[in-house]
């Protein structure tokens, strides 16, 4: 008996025990194949994934863009591929939406976006970073990865398709940061990489204005003030990461 090849779900992992269980639980019953590409977990992530029925492949981390491209290529024999991060999970509406469009298999669509919402400090960020539509459900064999800098090390990694893209309802929960300290550590890492590969020179005006407007955009224009203390800390964290990036760019320009 042949196995159905309608939908493969692929997740890249490394030491993600805090979030991977919720990720996998949210997609149970949705896929024909579950693939986990792990880059060296030592915290039990691999064992948990295998116990949940996933095929686990070990591959050293070469950067987000090549790792995601490997994930896409590994599943190109399936009609549809859903790419998730280990800290992402689907709500019931998004689960049903994906189930529906995979069954319909509309020939006019090469992919679908859906909204991702951050869970931070024990609650939702309903306004900061919203909306954040990501292309994650793609037709097998048609998607490519792109990003800034060699191997996408400069950030802004994204999945791209040449054909038409639809939009799904529902929400993808993004439980990225364990704490405010974890958030700032991530922003520091991102700022270092972004500054290294950004071809634009740094400037004093950017150092003073870019973080300020980044905070204004998230906290006031997007309504982060209505997210309470979570919104304030998240918007300030983003501005802080931007400030570090501008410092590093300016230092590189003056070097």
Task: Write a structural description.
Helix content is 39%, strand content 24%. With 255 residues, it is an alpha/beta fold. Strands 1, 2, 3, 4, 5, 6, 7, 8 and 11 form a nine-stranded mixed β-sheet that branches. Strand 2, helix 2 (45-51) and strand 3 (55-58) form a beta-alpha-beta unit. Helix 5 (180-197) packs parallel to helix 7 (228-254). The N and C termini lie far apart (65 Å). The model has no long low-confidence stretch (mean pLDDT 94).
Number of contiguous helices:
7
Q: How many β-strand runs?
A: 11
CATH third-level topology of the largest domain: Spore Coat Polysaccharide Biosynthesis Protein SpsA, Chain A
CATH class of the largest domain: Alpha Beta
Low-confidence stretches: none
Rg (CA only) = 19 Å
N→C terminal distance: 65 Å
N-to-C SSE series?
EHEHEHEEHEEEEEEHHH
Just name the CATH architecture of the largest domain: Alpha-Beta Complex
Question: How many independent structural domains?
Answer: 2
What's the helical proportion of residues?
25-40%
Percent of residues in beta strands? 15-25%
Question: Can you summarize the main beta sheet?
Answer: 9 strands, mixed
Q: What does the overall shape look like?
A: globular
Averaged pLDDT: 94
Find the CATH superfamily of the largest domain: Spore Coat Polysaccharide Biosynthesis Protein SpsA, Chain A
The helix/strand class is: alpha/beta
């Amino acid at each position: 008996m042949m196995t159905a090849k309608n939908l493969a779900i692929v997740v890249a992992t490394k030491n993600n025990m805090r979030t991977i269980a919720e990720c996998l639980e949210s997609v149970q019953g949705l896929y024909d194949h579950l693939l986990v590409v792990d880059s060296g977990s030592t915290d039990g992530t691999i064992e948990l994934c295998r116990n949940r029925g996933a095929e686990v492949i070990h591959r050293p981390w070469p950067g987000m863009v090549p790792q995601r491209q490997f994930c896409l290529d590994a599943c190109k024999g399936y009609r549809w591929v859903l790419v998730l991060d280990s800290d992402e999970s689907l709500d019931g509406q998004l689960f049903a939406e994906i189930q529906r469009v995979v069954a319909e298999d509309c020939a006019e669509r090469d992919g679908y976006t859906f909204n991702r919402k951050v869970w931070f400090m024990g609650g939702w960020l309903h306004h900061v970073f919203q909306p954040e539509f990501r292309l994650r459900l793609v037709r097998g064999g048609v998607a490519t990865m792109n990003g800034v800098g060699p191997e996408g090390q400069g950030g802004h990694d994204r999945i791209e398709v040449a054909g038409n893209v639809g939009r799904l309802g529902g929400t993808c929960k993004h439980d990225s940061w364990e704490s405010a300290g974890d958030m700032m550590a991530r922003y520091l890492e991102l700022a270092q990489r972004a500054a290294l590969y950004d071809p634009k020179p740094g400037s004093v005006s950017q150092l003073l204005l870019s973080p300020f407007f980044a905070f204004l955009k998230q906290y006031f224009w997007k309504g982060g003030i209505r997210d309470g203390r979570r919104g304030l800390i998240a918007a300030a964290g983003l501005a802080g990461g931007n400030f570090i990036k501008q410092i590093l760019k300016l230092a590189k320009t003056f070097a």
